[in-house]
Design goal:
Layout: H1 2-5, H2 15-27, H3 35-42, H4 48-54, H5 62-71, H6 73-77, H7 89-95, E1 97-100, E2 120-124, E3 134-137, E4 152-157, E5 168-173, E6 176-184, E7 190-194, E8 201-202, E9 205-206, E10 211-214, E11 218-228
Helix pairs in contact: 3-4
Length: 233
Amino acid sequence: MEDEIKPNKIKIVRPETLEFIILYNQLKGKAFNGNAQLAEALGFNSPSSITEIIKSRQNIDPEKLRIFKERYKDYITGDKKQNFSESKPVSKHSEGIPMYEISATASGVEVYNDINDSQPVGHMNFPGIEDCDFALPVWGHSMYPYLENGCWVALKIIHDKKILPGEVYYIEWGDYRMYKRLLAGDIPDEVIAHSDNTTEMVGNRLKYAPFIIKVADIKKLCLVKDIHKKHNH
């Protein structure tokens, strides 16, 4: 089923596309914060165009690469090193953390759409989340009752990938993005992605069965710091 919903990669990735991908990974979070901002800067109609290039599903136009290198040349040369996320600390504390309204994709597992293709829909601000980076909603029931469908979660990015076994995280690896409780694996470089919902079954098997992830494969690791549950009216 996974093969049916994933677009194929292009056969030949041109040198300018490889250069863009390398620079993109070096500058993300420093020169720009997400694909929506970068798409606007480069004149793309949609942030998804950036995503398609980064995932080697289409090549970048050489003129777009020239604009990219010209716009962010100070970051590329090292003349400017300030991290984008640190450029407006007053705004973060006064407005709160950005909230991204991303939803789950139509697949067999709860995989969320790419946060980089989203614009903030608002800000979350209440005591206890000052050190968090952003907030995402919960879709689906794999982490019930700890995370209920529709609630909002304040997340803190863990840059060093140090995992506290037993805590709940938002994780991105491969093409997958989801909430899971991470448990210690049998070997040090692996963790077990566990779902709290152990009541739903498909036949005689758990609908949300645990599985193993290599820590090195995790591209983004965010600790769940606070939960804002929706009100029942």
